[in-house]
Task: structure prediction
Amino acid sequence: MLYVDDILIASKSRSTIKKLKSLLSSEFEMKDMKEVKRVLGMKIDRDRRSGKVCLTSKGYLQIVLQKFNISSDTRSISTPLSPHFNLAVIMSLKSVKECEYMSHVPYASVVVI
Result:
C-alpha cells in the first residue's frame, strides 16, 4: 500500500486540474487541501491578473542571515538569473573531498546550505 502525504498539482488550466483531481479521487482516497500557500519552505504569491506566480524564500534567507550575523534590516536587491543561464549536473561538486573543502568557504556554504 502506498501513502502520500501531499501532492502539488500545477497547471495553467483549472479544468485540467479538476480532471486530474477527479481521476485521482476515483482511484485513491484523498482530501482536497485547496490552494497551497507554501511549498518546500517557500511562500507562494500569485498575481492572477498577469498570470504570474512568485516563490519567496524569505524565511530560509533569514536563517542564512542569522548564521552569518547579517542584520535583517540590510538593504536587499533583486538578482534574477539571466534567461540564458543554465545549470548543469557537471557543475556540481564531484567528491566528498570537494564538498569538505567548499564547506569551509563562507560563500559556498551560503549557497549549498
User: Anything to note?
Assistant: The two ends are 34 Å apart (CA to CA). The longest strand covers residues 42-47. Residues 14-27 form the longest helix (14 residues).
